[in-house]
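Quarterly update, task 2.4: 3,4-dihydroxyphenylalanine-bound model.
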Amino acid sequence: MTPAGASLLDRLAGIGAEGHAAIGEASDAAALESARVEYLGRNGQLARVMSSIGTVEPAARREVGQRANAVKTSLSEALERQDRHLAAAARAPSGGVDLTLPARGRWVGGVHPVTRVIDEICDIFAELGFTRVLGPEVESTWYNFTALNIPLDHPAADMMDTFYLDDDTVLRTHTSPVQARVMEAFAPPVRVVVPGLAYRRDSFDPSHAPAFEQIEGLAVDEGVDFVEFRAAIQHFVRHFFGAGTKSRFRPSFYPFTEPSAEVDVSCAVCRGSGCPTCKRTGWITIMGSGMVDPAVFEAVGYDPERYTGYAFGMGPARIAMVRHGIPDMRLLYEGEMSFLRQFV
Ligand code: DAH
């Protein structure tokens, strides 16, 4: 290549480098426009190189022309990029972040509404001195039934309700067997709450699930009486459902408590006047409970002459339904994100 051709190629390289620098440094539209005029304009540096292409020997013109076109294309692209960049920065109120762009969704996990209910209940009982303990879901018929004064021919032990794994082993049908396990392992006084899953041969329907949470409670000591029992439950109801909530004890029957009671709270939705949530009664049943039957103390080796206690069992899924006005228990167990997202 002739000296003229070589020097034009050098100039083109310089124009490319300087042009890119000038475009990149342009901090507003006016600076960008003067960079464009300087390098790509009608009388700009690139145009001047092109107009002197006639000084190059014909054989080298083609290479110079191609190189000049490449520089032109790359500077034009850089100019457009910088123009878009400046426009976006101008839209953004500060710091080059465009706050008008739609946000990209960020998924944040949350605690399941039933788990939240369980934690709150256990925390309230913790204030009263109850320790949170767990027990096995695969349970012997002794702990699940016999130790709790439920004879194996009782309807609750029947094949209709219970998942039997073999003749002596079941999926626990309630968390109550942990009462017996705790009393066997620890001398009184005991105060425990036991959250966990229980299993029954029920199909899913709006108010049943074959696997569902329960929370068991047990308090045993010398001199524990119905008054302490009532006070503990009322403390729980006021703290969990709100200060204005009324509670009542309704006589009931469980083999492991005597006397037994179901605890109802005034319906938070209608404040007692009657609505679909409380089936127009004004009351919602939240737990089974009672004073521990002496037969249970005997089964676990506690002296029934010396010790008394109370026990209770409740269903956190049902309580979550009442709290949030959820009409169908299946919603709590299907893991549908569009539903669960409401509680995050
Ligand atoms: N285990 C009972 C059930 O699953 C609930 C229950 C009732 C637990 C009374 C108790 C109690 O501890 O005292 O239906």
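Highlight for this quarter: The first strand starts at residue 131 and ends at 132.
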